[in-house]
Amino acid sequence: MKLLHIDSSVLGPHSVSRQVSAAIVDHLRQATPGLGIVYRDLASAPLSHLSGSHLAAAQGATPEAALQQDLAAGQAALDEFLAADIVVLGAPMYNFTVPSQLKAWIDRVLVAGKTFKYSAQGVEGLAGNKRVIIAVSRGGFYGPGTPAAAGDHVEAYLRWVFGFIGVRNLEVISADGIQVGPEHREKAMAGALQAAIKVAAA
Ligand SMILES: Cc1cc2nc3c(=O)[nH]c(=O)nc-3n(C[C@H](O)[C@H](O)[C@H](O)COP(=O)(O)O)c2cc1C
Ligand 1 atom 2: the closest Cα is on which residue? Predict the structure, then answer.
């Protein structure tokens, strides 16, 4: 069984989503003998933004030498995603959505013919064999019925992204209100870390 652990916060050791994603992975590691873990840090080793040259290369154009290494990095990100049975993803909210580093990863992983395809029935997800666990951290509160609910483009977005490629087994652990004050931060962290150790074993 293979687990892919991805972080995308730029806040290093101060990051909430990193602490929560690490707690989920630690819990699963202890509960699952022989679990193979691959770690990808999108903040320290970011993928570049998708460009017209990337798309042209995907259509068969010969890439310039400078692009070749970058294409290989994107392919490696896709391959390790395809190989994973479980994906644990740290996803903070920056300006109401995911960090641009995470978006750049999504742009390399949502690839027609690899993780989804169009058919007569519409879109078909090709990555439905995975379990995805997302550790979301947000400065405010965005739950259903809250005034800011419509401003959440992290959880709703990621649910859509993974649903689009066929993932039905998706869990979200969120730490909300991180910037509201120290008390809220502590409570949210404690709640999320508690939820992390309750995640079902692989
Ligand atoms: C650049 C930046 C932008 C942020 N934008 C938002 C925002 O739009 N809404 C919000 O509720 N919190 C926002 N926050 C607060 C973060 O969501 C919160 O601190 C969260 O813990 C970040 O996750 P991390 O600690 O794993 O990086 C922002 C924080 C940073 C650093």
Answer: 94
Ligand 1 atom 28 nearest Cα: 94
What are φ and ψ of residue 56, in 5° steps? -65, -40
Ligand 1 site residues, Cβ closer than 6 angstroms: 9, 11, 15-18, 92-96, 137-140, 178-179
For residues 114, 115, 118, 124, the Cα torsion angle rounded to the nearest 10 degrees is 140
DSSP helix/strand/coil, 75:
helix
Which one-letter amino acid corresponds to residue 42?
Answer: L
Distances (CA, A) of 3 to 23, 37, 142, 158, 159: 14, 5, 29, 18, 19
Inter-residue contact 159 to 172 (CB < 8 Å)? yes
| Ligand 1 atom 1, closest CA | 94
Q: What is the dihedral of CA 56, 61, 64, 66, to 10 degrees?
A: 50
Task: Note the pTM of the prediction, 2 decimals.
Answer: 0.97
Q: How many other CB atoms are found less than 10 A from the CB of residue 194?
A: 11
**What is the tens place of the pLDDT at every residue in 105-155?**
999 999 999 999 999 989 999 998 999 999 999 999 999 999 999 999 999
Contact 61, 55 (CB under 8 A): no
